[in-house]
Amino acid sequence: MKRTTLALALALSTAAGAASAQTVEMIVPFSAGGGTDTVARVFEPGFSEALGRTVVIRNIDGASGTIGAAAAANAAADGSSVGYLPIGPLAIQPSLRETSYGADDFAYVCQTTSTPVFLLSKTDGEAGSVEDWVARGKDSRVVYGSSGPGTIPHLAMAAFASKAGLKAVHLPFNGTGPAMNAMAGGEIDLFVDTATVLENNDVKALAVFAPERLEAYPDVPTMKEAGYDLDFSVWQGLVAPAGVEGETLAAYSEACRKAIETDRFKKLAQDTNTGILYRGPEEFAAFVKRNAEQNRTILKDAGLVQ
Question: Which one, out of 35, 73, 101, 245, has a CA that is 20 to 30 A from the CA of 216?
Answer without folding.
Answer: 35
